[in-house]
Queue: 2 jobs
Job 1
Amino acid sequence: MRTTALAAMALTALPLAAPAQDLVTRNRVGLPDAPNTMTFRLTPYDLYSADPATAEKFAELFSDFIRTRPDWKIETQLQTGNIGQEQARLLQQTQAGRGPDCAMVDSSQLALFKENGVLKPMNATFSDEEVADLFPYVREAITNEAGDVLAWWWFTDLRVLYRDTSVVPDAPQTWAETQEAALAAAEAGKEGILFNAGRWEGTAFDWLANFWAQGGELVDAEGAPVFGEGENRDRMLAAIVYAENLVESGAAPSRVTSITNYDAFNAAAAAGTAAMFVGGNWQYGQLRNTLPEEQFANWAVSELPGPTADQRATGTGGWAIAALTDDPQKAALCGEMAKEIYAGPGNAYQGLLPTSAALYDEYDAYEGPEFNLFAEALQNGVARPGAAIYPEISNQIQIMLGDVLSGAAEPKAALDAAFAAAQAAYERQ
Amino acid sequence: MSARGPAPADGRPLPWLVPAVAMLALFYAVPVLDVARLAFSDATLVRAPEGWSLAALRALLADPALGQVLGTTLIFTAINVVALQVLGLAIALTVVRGEARGLRGMTAFRTLVLAAWVVPGIANGLIWQMLFDEAPYGTLNSMLGAVGLGPVAWLSDPNMALASATIANLWQGTAFSMIVFYAARRGIDPVLYEVAALDGASPWRTFRSITLPLLRTAIAVNTVLVSVQTLNTFDSILALTGGGPGRATEVLALFTFNTVFQNLDLAGGSVLALLLFAISMALAALVHGWLGRAPA
């Protein structure tokens, strides 16, 4: 009896004593001989981050998590940064029964996964109060009509206007004020305002805030494109002309049509060549870590300007974790991992914006004044539509903006072409 | 009577060919046939085929973007194929001449050119994206600015963006042509050049009358290979411009990729893949028929 008890203690103590590096390998979390296995497909930004400190922090969080579940191991599968392709492959594999048990799903793809019925409820993990505390657009995206929790959207992000206050002291509130401030900066030898206008998702997503601020809608209730008809067409045109005027007037350099990543803005800020840029909230921390203290002190964030001061919107994104397995135990483990690692301490460490209001009070990491601005701007947050046609609409908007801003097409012709292409693609779906 | 006995395949070659044909069919013909099957379906990336029709083909033919994409592909391919041959041949002949004269550093020079070839397409695109950066501190524009030139709208101007994508492709692809021509040039009997020298032939006459005719087969093979390679190029353009601004640098391979992975339209992407396949085959047949024939 005593021998059995000692053996049991030893078995229990082993995982507790195992150092973090033994429990986390390149493709596994937990002990290799654990009897139960959950497969998890994740992005390369946390546990396997290129930043050693972030990877170490997440290895520690995962180790603590798995130590309390010694019967489990998590087999990890890494997604590349090519989000569209990876998510399409994930959905295809899951439908064919070859997908992982648990995976990170881009928030813009959640609706597609929901529509195809591959997300399995994780109700056992999340209480009604926790669901009720989520931002409304998040709650709507992760639950179905029956109230099942089909995913956990663990962080969100938003777009804001960054400005060098030594050049632009007051935050522009409207499109007209933005152009005026950018022109003044350009005359002073700076690049007035930078924004994404190259051929990638960031271009469409950032610019759509100008359309959404006017109440524009990309798709109808059935998911069919409607952005090129009726009032939506007028709103689209107004937003295109705003961007066109920025470039034509010299308020924005023509090189914006070649910008296809947010790092270009950090580089311009570091070089001191840009007065303003439309960027993501996560760039605030990057600037703080990159710029000399006195230079960083000049940079401030504000809500994206609207056509008028009271018409505002900002695109919100982020990632969710979803169970793709019919096994309730694995689904529960997937939910617990999202809740205990990512939504709480993981977010706080990385400075990512939680989707639950209570978490902003729980962690000291969210005490900076910028988080008050982010929280305020999130009230005007708009998520990309949960429609399968969205990626193609985004593609067409990227082409439309590129053509208009490079002078290859007029706004009306470019919009009509984009709308016709999106409609044709919708009919093919 | 023959000096040897009958070979195993004499009279009945078919059984001996079966393994090779089966392997080729498995790895090449089956995927092509599957793409052809999908082209006549309504398959999407997230839905298996449920019906069969010509709808995907009709949609493609009605797509106003196709003309622009084919035009861009034609310009991109034509310029690249010609320039790749000229640059590859020039470098190969320079290396051969350098080696013949015992110049030091020829191996290092050859290795340097080859280094570009082993760079993955995506990395190639990213490298040139940094060089072409139009920011006030962009590499090439800063260099031009130092001598009072520029700035050049490398990637933001639609016409210039296609030229920039071509430069990036040439930088990477020239090494392949160089290898082909270098090997072919080394295969030419040196006696021919010695005779030409004794006859007092000028370098240009030697090139025109000996080198070029004897490289005819290599040029034909290389033209086919680099044409197909260039037609299939999408990764470096994806990283460099994403196909933009607008559709200015969207070649057929990238258009196919976008059709499948942006619009999830597997049937439409399959039609485009077949089109790409047909163009490649036609080009190969054309070039082979034109340049591949043995001189009379």
Note: Chain B has a mean pLDDT of 90.
Job 2
Amino acid sequence: MDRKTDYFALFDLPRRYALDETVLNESWRALLARVHPDTAVLADATAKRKAIEDAAYVNEAYRTLKDPMRRGDYLLQCYDEAPLGSGDVLPVEFLSEQLEAREAADEAWRAGNRDRLESLQTSLRAAQRQQQGALAVLFVEDETPSAEALAKARQHVLSLQFLTRFADDLDEKIDV
Amino acid sequence: MLLQISEPDSPAPPRERKRAAGIDLGTTHSLVASVPQSVATVLPDENGRVLLPSVVRYGEAGEVTVGYGALPWLARDVTNTIASVKRLMGRGLADLGDARHFPYHWAETSGMVRLKTCAGEKNPVEISAEILKALRVRAETQAGGALEGVVVTVPAYFDDAQRQATKEAARLAGLNVLRLLNEPTAAAIAYGLDHGAEGVYVVYDLGGGTFDVSILRLSRGVFEVLATHGDSALGGDDFDHRVFCWILETANLPPLAAEDVRLLLMIARNAKETLTQHETAPVVTTLSTGLRVELTLTAEIFTEITEHLVQKTLMPLKRALRDAKLSIEDIKGVVLVGGATRMPQIRHAVADFFKQPPLVNLNPDEVVALGAAIQANALVGNRSLDSGEDWLLLDVTPLSLGLETMGGLVEKIVPRNAGIPLTRAQDFTTFKDGQTALAIHVVQGEREKVADCRSLARFELRGIPPMVAGAARIRIVFQIDADGLLSVSAREQTTGVEASVVVKPSYGLDENEITRMLEDSMAHARDDMQARALVETQVEADQLIELTQHALAEDGDLLNDAERSAIDAALEELAQRRQGQELNALRLALAKANSATAEFAGRRMNRSVQKALTGKRVDQVSGIRNQTVENG
């Protein structure tokens, strides 16, 4: 298996943001059925190592495409965008909005207000879906995004990263 | 002339069946199973008994007795007769908080525990190997020859040290380990193939000394583990111990000799087992001191004194559901595994939790060994002989893995419940000018601080050529194979300096450490998150201040007076907030400073690009990749 294959091509998926999860899941299983180390138990050490590396590659590709934020980041890199880094800055309005939401979450948590935490989580999910919707328009099949579109997409992926972290944090808070 | 080698239409010559077996190495008892004729079956001993008690006795004359033969010695020859050795696998003496509660004589050692016996010092790997040898002989006798290989099961919640120790024990017993298989996954294979199950199933596996819960999706021959959780120090033994404590209290017994402790533990276990079928159990015995114990344990009292143990199994269920992003309504069936699930109160608790009665139409003692045998049979290539359908097993790693970073925090590289095999790489850099070595500390656990996680390995990447801080690019790669075993390597990308280590810790997590870590992580999650966020933001603030001051010294001429004083003011506020403990105020100051310096950073970037274009190579000016955008 060529471990340099584009993740989308690996799973027979078009290179775009909108994802057909059924195709992804089925291709993932079909690929692993072929390369999983269980198929190389009696083989020599080289073949065993190759099986581990191939299966790990397939699993990493699967994880990347399945996750909305990672999928966006991966698409940026497909179009030679630099990886997200500390040079990236989000608009101050977005940041202060998020700071407010975080403060609200901290407060609800201290007060043990589970309903409030859950309603915050609901609006976070909506915000995430909004970013994903925007990305689906920017990355479409058979079309190389313009520089302007890429710059926009970058902001959406960054926002999504921000929102995803916050959502994970909230999940943890709701659980406790 | 052409020689016809075979008729084109004749069937291929029959391939010989390879000998393989599945072994369930349990805390209380162990089993071996195989697939002699397309149907998996557990192998009995010459007396028709399927279970081999996991008890090993070392005799004066150097003889080793395993199983039923060793049982009578449990209470008579305590220090030379070892039971529940699985609880010691991969553990160090310092980790056994309750080492005094074991009746053994411990040898002084810094690695895995060693027990002093009349046959010399023995470690848990050697003792387990005796059990495995007995099972190997049983399987080879019945198969009529040496085994090609075996699948050995481990609790899904076993950490790296415990898995390594198990694999070592099998090797020591002369076995070729085809795969370490998680016990609940093995049970799911046996159950799923037998019943043609499709959908999401939970395996609740309470053994003698370990508790696992796994959630699997079974669909068209694929067994996909969605999440696993557990407690590697919770099992039937703990219920025995509760009864033992109840006997001590109720009969008001004085401190006991080791023999009497063993005796009462056995009486306690018998009483527990009696209560599976009856409402009361007699607790009657005579101690070595002549003291007579005559009590009656009722089901009601038993339920009451073990209630907290039953409750302890529910938290991992909740967490596994959350990690799998599922709710109780999504669960099609709950499979009970492990002898301890025969206890009625466990069955009630599981039924209450899932709002459906658990599936009990299989032998909870045998299902794991049967699943292991089916897997072993498939791995050696017999499956096609049985014209069985193809199936695929996709498992996960139970505990998060990470590295120590600045401030004693854990940078998680592999989250728990990630699909294996896997490879994860992350780039790090040096933080001091001229730094030539990087210490790498690998930890396992769910907590945010290194001190609260299990240390797996430390190693050093040396020989990094001196560069300015942040210029080196060190890629650290974690790899987990299909047995769930970890290896870690590090490589400096610009020069190719390399260091790697297969993580082989000399001992594993403390008896209670995983439990404690989990409980702590619940109790401390709130403090942890606050503390982590504060430390991270402080580090970020320090970096921004330092970077900006450095930049101002170098390229201050790019700014006019008004711009300069705006940056100075933002930095001053940030420095002030940095000293306090107010997270949100610090975040706001950081956001302000970031935006105040954004334009300046842009101008500097332009200048450096121009510089680069007039002489320097681009790869000398481009910075190191930052792994994450700090925007929390």
Note: Residues 147-175 of chain A form the longest helix (29 residues).
